[in-house]
Task: structure prediction
Amino acid sequence: MAKVSTVNQPIYPIGTLGIAWQAKEKADWLAIQQRKRNYWDEVVSPLTALLLDRDSPLADWAELVEYAVLDYQPQGLAQYPVFAVRSRDWQAHRPTVLVTGGVHGYETSGVQGALQFIAQKLSHYHAAVNVLILPCISPWAYETINRWNPLAIDPNRAFVEHSPAAESAAAMAFIREQAKQVTLHIDLHETTDTDNSEFGPAKAARDGVAFEYHDIPDGFYLVGDSENPQPEFQQALISAVCQVTHIAAADAAGCIIGEPLQQLGVINYAKKALGLCGGMTDAMYVTTTEVYPDSANATAEQCNRAQVATICAAIDYVLQHGNK
Result:
């Protein structure tokens, strides 16, 4: 584990240093959140146009499913329906591909990359695989550009039994209902400068601990599963993405965000133990993308295309290698 600095790091404006938040501090945090973009316009409307329009070719073999309604009315907020794209012609003998985006709502290319894959590439694979795509698991966080849900819970640490996060619980329940076995799971994320300027300090304040600063890596990387690393699979994805955008280098300690580099652009986490989205199935092939949208060397469109390239390369790998 790389050494991290806790010196001269920002003090979060909510709470008391060293004391974990209680209900008041969480309410204070929620009160300062503002809606900054529109889930209906940026996510629901494109999905509707792609899958409910009679003239859309995608509608013949993929369907839009409302799998839950997230009710934030007790917090004085709105209700949000959440959607999945599902293969109509589901065949038990085909590999099942799960794509998740927007677990962290502020990680924009995770959502937009999933939508771009649906619009541009899904047609290439509809006869070869079963597909489940959940493009925006955390819609309130998407609108407010947040890592947490309104209860100050990180959904990407809550993919566990009896999950405290409605977003995670709804996604897990739907996937268990739809797919007995998942072959491939790609979870789309970003690592941003706000991880150090906002979300890291907020987490430290919430938990009553010191903020641990990590350098943000400039470039794309993957997070494999330490219990099932599949290094050849990860390498194939990096090889595809490097045609689209640059790959993050390790820091001076040989790490990315404090984790030892396993190979170019790849680190590993214990996904199930940490309650990560990537650990919610027993898929043979699992990875989490991490795009760096704040890089001077990458555009928003490159970030979206990097997400799409990962999904395509992953499906291609599964179709070539099967369950080997």
In short: The helical segments are 23-31, 39-51, 108-120, 139-144, 166-178, 194-207, 231-241, 300-321. The first strand starts at residue 62 and ends at 71. The first helix runs from residue 23 to 31.
